[in-house]
Every structure is written in C-alpha cells, then in structure tokens.
Amino acid sequence: MEQINNIQVVPCTSSNYLRPFRVHYNQNGTKKSWDFMQTHDSVSVLIFNTTSHCFILVKQFRPAVYMSEWERSKVKPLQPAEEESAEPAPTEAKVPEENQAGDSSEETSSHQPPASAGVTYELCAGLVDKPNLSLEEIARQEVLEECGYDVPVTKLRKITSYRSGVGVTGSKQTMFYAEVSDENCVGEGGGKPQEGELIEVVKVPLHEAMTFAFDESIPKTMGVIFSFIWFHSNMSPKYKISTNV
Known about the structure:
Layout: E1 18-27, E2 30-39, E3 42-49, E4 54-61, H1 63-73, H2 80-85, E5 119-122, E6 124-127, H3 135-147, E7 156-164, E8 171-180, E9 200-205, H4 209-213, H5 222-234, H6 236-239
C-alpha cells in the first residue's frame, strides 16, 4: 500500500468522477460567481462486529490527501524581513531513504513526504453510481467488497444523510449502521483490484473507539468521528460497555 513512486501531476481534461463548473447568479441584487465540482453522491457504513465487539474500518491511500500533504511540506519562501537576517540554508528537507514514497529520479523532489502521509482510516463507503440499485443495495455491495461481510439489506439501518464538501461539491452522503458477526464474514475484503482498489480492513475495539476518534495523530475522516459519537449515544447502552469517552 505504501510503495508509491513515479508521481506525475497533469491537467485533468476529462473524468468519470468529477466535472468542474462555474455558476453565475444574482443574490439579493448582487452579481456573484462560484466554482464547483459536480460529483456522485455516496454511501458509508458504520460496521460493528458483535462477536468481537469492534468496529470495522478501512484503510487506504488517498492521492488527494497525499498531494495536500506534499504541498504543505514544501519549504515556504522567506519573508523580506527574514531574508535579510537569515543565514543561507538548504531549501529542501531530506526524506529518510527507507521512508521515501518515490524514486530518486530528478523528477522527484527531495521534500516528497512518505506514502503514509496519504493513508487514511475511513468508514466503508462507495459512490452512488448504479441507477438500478437502491442506496441500501449499494451499501451492501460495498460492505461485501471492501470488508468481506455479507449483510442483508434489511439489516442496514440508516443513521442520517448530510452534505459533504459544501464549498466545492455539495454532494450528499447517506450513512448506514450494520451489525455483523464472525458468521457473516465470507471473504477478506480489500475492494476490487481490477478497479484499482487496495484496501486494508482494520478493527477498532469498542473500548478504544472514542480515544481513536479524537487522536489527531491518526488520520481519519469526519465520518469516523461522527459515527463513533452516534454509536456512543445510541447503541452503547445496549452492550453495557464504555466507549472510553
């Protein structure tokens, strides 16, 4: 998962997943414009294993996160006042050889972060791109493909739906809750390699969930944090186990 190399950033002239637009409009008599991306809606699933009392998450490399961290790691130019007093110094930070995400070619900058900078923990999730399937059926497919659990559609409980990326995409995500047991595990998960997916299934014990959620050193999506809080408020009394808030 963390062997990332030969990175090239090129213009995106066409995509099956997003399209950029600019909308012009009047609001209260004022002319305005806004740039946005048209994307698919999505579903996510909080999975709780009742056999081992743990949450089932997925871990994967996210190029967008990685490139954001790469930009953040670049050495910022000195301000005019700093330039006068600062001693000459190297402009790039050396990444330890064993942690380098790319190769040593001239195209690869030495301040390139390790591939782990782009790895995140997430809920099982997927795009709503199958018009013939309901949201529940899409969620069920994602749970099976990514995490290896066969969950009947009737066992999926809707938690809520909300807008994500309201400043850029405005797409809607619908979140479900599913309880599984070891008997429901019919495969290893990991996603579809033929579609470029490389996913690791991760188990978070119930008693460690809230500590995990608020540990900023663990990169995760907001969906993980919100769903763990939801579980603590709505489901924890059922199991009479502290989620370590």
